[in-house]
Fold this sequence. Notes:
single chain; alpha+beta; Elongation Factor Tu (Ef-tu), domain 3; nine-stranded antiparallel sheet; globular
Amino acid sequence: MASPQDLSGTVQPGRGLGAGLMADHAVMERLRELAGFAIVPGTLNVRLPRPLDRDSRWRYVAATEISPGWEGRSGQAGYFLAPVVIAERYRGLAFQADEPGNPGYPCDQVELFSEVHLRGALGLIDGDTIAVRVRDL
Length: 137
């Protein structure tokens, strides 16, 4: 069994794209299938203290597996995904986008989908720290 991977870090401002892109019902349904539970539209950006080291619990999903034409709409070729537990209580998925057109995408940042709106449920603001652990598949 793999040991827990700590993805704890600092909440960062987002680019505001997540909720808009996730307004598509088919996209939300596909993300629910991948996560195994219903997720709230939008993502929470978390800056890690070091670059992400993906282990065997991380899975790659091509943008075309999310929705036809998704790569063109999102500018993302795919995603590295891992199941997580956030703040020891909420299920989520951590991901890093594969953005070939954006070589500056930070290697020490993950984004989180969750079953709750994390900023509201946890009272988070930019700069707060958040505990996140990758869980076994």
